[in-house]
Amino acid sequence: MAFLVEPLQYGFFVHGLLAALLVGSLCGLLGVYIVLRQMSYIGHGLSHAVFGGAVVSHLLGLNVYVGAGLWGFGAAVLIHRLATRHDMHADAAIGIVTTASFAVGVALMSRVHRFTQDFEAVLFGNVLGVSEHDLVLIAVVTGLTGLVVAALYKQLLFSTFDEAVAQVAGVPTHLVRLLFALILALAILASMQVLGVTLIAATIVIPAATARLLTHSFSTMLVLSTGLGGLTALVGMYLSYYFDIASGASIVLFAALLFVAVLSARRQG
Amino acid sequence: MSDALLVLQCVSAGYASQAIFTDLDLSLAPGQFAALVGPTGGGKSTLLKLILGLLPCMHGSVRHQPQVTLGYVPQRASIDWRFPVTAEQVVLMGRYRHTGYWPWATRADRREVAQLFERLGLTAYAGRHISQLSGGQQQRVFLARALIARPDLLLLDEPTAGVDLKTQHDILHLLHELNRAGMTILLATHDLNTIASHVPWVICFQHGVMAQGPPDAVLTPAILSQTYNADMVVLQQGGLRFIVNRSLAHAHVAQQGALAHRPRRVNDGVPR
Predict the structure, then answer these.
(1) Which domains does chain B have, with CATH numbers?
(2) Res B25 pLDDT > 50
């Protein structure tokens, strides 16, 4: 037990642990919809797009969170419009919008060198630098996401499974898509500080993919994926502490290890 | 025309700026049971999507009687069979308009599904994952999802594709029962032989209505050849009608013949 308690004497670790737990659960929850919609690339893409928004907001002297969040939402809407109105595959739309967005951030960073250090945390995560303010933001986004997913459970399930028939049945599928894009952008924003834009996608996809291996029930998958997201974040934080490795990487590596273990157990069983 | 359940007037529709059909006029009367037949790419699915409101009109209008509820059974190929849902959960989705605000199904929802499953012979499969059902059971589950919303107009896209002959017959028999109870039905299909003996009204469609009427009047070599741009033959035997694409049949027979007459390989003089 001592090895569990020891790191908790440090305030920065407790903040980081709470933030990672919330972010892991949040990404695990949203990951179910992403994986089942076969849009795993969206998490990867949007997290990069948000980076562009963060740099632009910083340069313009705007609130980075608000700017990056709006940018991410705008990117998600643009992807949706390209994919639905211009007869383009979603993966191509994601590739174009998000890499262009990321490139905007990189271009501006290379032009204005003064804040390169700040954005290393955005790229690779700095869970130990999580402030109380960040923690509150993460908690609010997690709570909001939980509420939206619970309130729109039927609409999200139906439109994820069969969007055309859901629309015929009266589900406001466009509104559902927009709301989902909004909470996804917020979730990515909240996760940036903990995981960094380069690793967010993995925490969205891996717990959901692992949960899918364990169940044939949608509701169970939601619970399992959220739980696995939180668990892998928790274990990853301790691994990061004891092995002195970057927390984002340890969380993702542990999640990947768990996925492989479940896959192997399933094959043998 | 004024008492029609569905009226399409001077409609053009398609994807991006490419029209699949233009200036289409079509109507369905309440209680009509019609099959939409035609070649792949001829616009059958586009027409269904237009009626369902999934595709906007480029020109013209699609109107149906007020308070008409639409039901839709999509092609089986469009379903993700790995999605983690059971047969019962799929049908519960169809209760969307009738169910409460809470995420979980109510007792009334489950009772309704159970009654429908009993009627469709699916009771034993309610808890099964959708990938663990046979093709016919899968089709009936998706039919149940449409039926649970009690539609006035039911549209089905290839409901008999990929299922065996008995299941095809069972599905069409069920559709007949629903139609006798007052439901208007429009199904799109490639399966000319099944609809020839089961559906009372046929609409031949290729980028527009080529002909429509009872099977006797419409399923003729001339109309079918024009619709499919192929040499179609209609054979009558024992009061049944069989439709064959002559060029495909010839190619098939020729291929079979070639296989039958191909010299067998021999090994030590003993035919394998």
Answers:
(1) 1-68+152-219 (3.40.50.300), 81-150 (no CATH)
(2) yes
Q: How far is A163 from chain B (nearest CA, A)?
A: 10
Provide the whole-model pTM. Answer: 0.84
Judged by a CB distance cut-off of 8 A, whether residue B18 touches chain A is no
How many whole angstroms separate alpha carbon B158 and alpha carbon B33?
Answer: 15
| A136-185 pLDDT per residue, tens | 989 999 999 999 999 999 999 999 999 999 999 999 998 998 899 889 88
Over residues B205-246, the pLDDT tens digits come to 999 999 999 988 998 889 988 898 888 888 877 777 788 887
Using a CB-CB cut-off of 8 Å, the residues of chain A touching B129 are: 216
Overall average pLDDT of the A103-114 stretch: 79
CA distance A127 to A149: 26
Helix (H) or strand (E) holding A93: helix A90-111
Residue A216 with chain B: CB contacts under 8 Å: 84-86, 129
CB neighbours (10 Å) of residue B253? 10
- Check CB contact under 8 Å for B54 and A162: no
Interface residue of B49, B62, B89, B99 to substitute, partner A, most A CBs within 10 Å: B89
Torsion angle (degrees, nearest 10) of CA B92, B178, B217, B72: -10
Q: Which CATH superfamily hosts domain A19-200?
A: ABC transporter involved in vitamin B12 uptake, BtuC (1.10.3470.10)
Q: Cα-Cα-Cα-Cα dihedral of B105, B132, B174, B199, to 10°?
A: 130
Residue A212 has pLDDT above 80, yes or no: yes
Instruction: Calculate how close chain B gets to A218, using CA atoms only, in Å.
Output: 5
- Return the higher-pLDDT residue of A252 and B257: A252
- What count of other Cβ atoms lies within 10 Å of the Cβ of residue A93? 20
